[in-house]
Amino acid sequence: MLNKFAISSIIFGLGCFLPMKSTFAATKLTLEQQIGQKLMLDFRYYCDQDSENKCRTAMTELPADLAKIITKHDIGGVILFAENIQNINQTVKLNNQMQQAAAQSSLGAPLFISIDQEGGRVARIPRDVATSFTGNMSIGATYAQHGTQFATQSAQVIADELKAIGVNVNYAPTVDVNMNPDNPVINVRSYGEDPSLVGKLGGAQVAGFEGNGVITSLKHFPGHGDTNVDSHTGLPKVMHDKETIWQQDLPPFKDIIKKQNPGMIMTAHIQYPALDDTTFVSKDGKTMIKPATMSRKIITDLLRGELNYQGVVITDALDMAGISHFFEPIEAVINTFAAGVDIALMPIEIRSPKDLLVLDQLIARLVKEVKNGQLNGEEIAQSAQRILKLKSKFKLTTALDESLAIQKAQLILGDSSHRKVEAELALAAITLVKNVQSTLPLKLSNNAKVHIIMPDTRKCMALEQAIKEYADNDYQYSCTSLQGFEPSVALKALNDADIIIAGNASPNQSAVEIGGMDDLADDPQFAIAKSEQGAALENLLQQAQRANKKTVFVSLRAPYDIAKFGQYGDAILATYAYNIDIDNNVKVAGPAFTALAKVLVGKAAATGTLPVTVNGINNN
Q: Which of 116, 316, 319, 561 is catalytic?
């Protein structure tokens, strides 16, 4: 059992958090306190009144109802979404409100305040506020030239900015080894397809985050890299044999656990029959293989036993379809705890007062299951101790000098030195895959006609504005947006053009990128870039080829699309990212487009290398 201890140091290392005045004794936890610490709640939306309509009021300041349940149940942590974050001042105040509610609880333990701020495609803080980077696959593309430099630097920057607003847990890094070109949810969130590379870069990010005071959560154990189903929308199954699992999926987790023992590891809602073929009966009566999140063989025997992981194990969000389609919420939590998981992430939906009654029922049911022996009471107690030990290790606190914290956060988020690292990574990642007859850099005379084809108009604008900023000559620009265009107008622009620059972004966005399952429920067709875009782009590229037009193809996301579209390009570039910011509704920019423009016009060289195999390109 843990000894009595106090959390009394300054979080953030900024001098704006004060020592805690109270202590709490882990040895004296009641069963209810232990269970409260094992719950990580989301308050993405909250309405004070119950209604038949779905609540979509963003929770940006803590309502009295939610403060009371944090205090009443000794809740262990919360997860923030983009809706909870309007600006720096508001976010610091919100996080302080939640920590003050925790301070009033019987245990007085500080909260884990967590977020998905991986960088790249998954970032919850507005990109014009915080430094978001171009993501893991872009980091993988820089490894040959720069080693672990950008993995370390990007993690340090993100950690600095998270600490400044009061966030102490980041669900990163993603150390899935992306082996499947059709993976709909990982793809560019992975560093690449080489397990050794993924382990090195993931380890560097763990060091960068945790060395700067932010707890990491490796994900998604035992590996989400070889799936063609998104666990937000279904239950993927990985059919690897044990040898493949130990050679491909597990090495990054194994290596990082051995060297660094990261604060948290997140489970995957994925079936791995070679690791556990135990079955369960779903809520609609179907017999199915247990997902890893609920597998004792995977969580306790493999992760704790064989890999000797001593930290905190947390589920992926339990509202994802990989769990919620097959289990009632309370049953899902019971099953995850029985498997040996420490924290249930988003165990029930909390959107209005009636949901608070469900939370009461959940905790009462968990207490009952411990008392009747269905859940092991000693394991529950040990789990709560692991949680408190991690909070102690990172010196989490509920005490804050709010005004000083706000001042320092305003100086830190999006700081110029942070943006410089972001820009350097974006440029170092740009990969030149093909360059026939020295198509690049562009050699265009003044007033030459440049036709840009992009998934949407804003991306056209971003590239046009970036080229204008760095090109020596003035060009005339036209744009075809794949979201919708007039074929005759597009054909004329193609025929008139001196150069065509065509970009594609695939696969489509997944639920985690746009926010979460709430968005999917609102609009099942949430991905704007539908399958028709690919066919339209290929048709336009074929027309350009028939017209004998010089063409540059740019893969804006996962570079696997080069296998399909690269044949039409005289030059091929990969950027791995396409995020843009809009400044005053006039300037449209983003680090990837700035870097792309510099390479196009010859102001910088493309030094990145493909971190995955693209059919017909780098696998000959």
A: 316
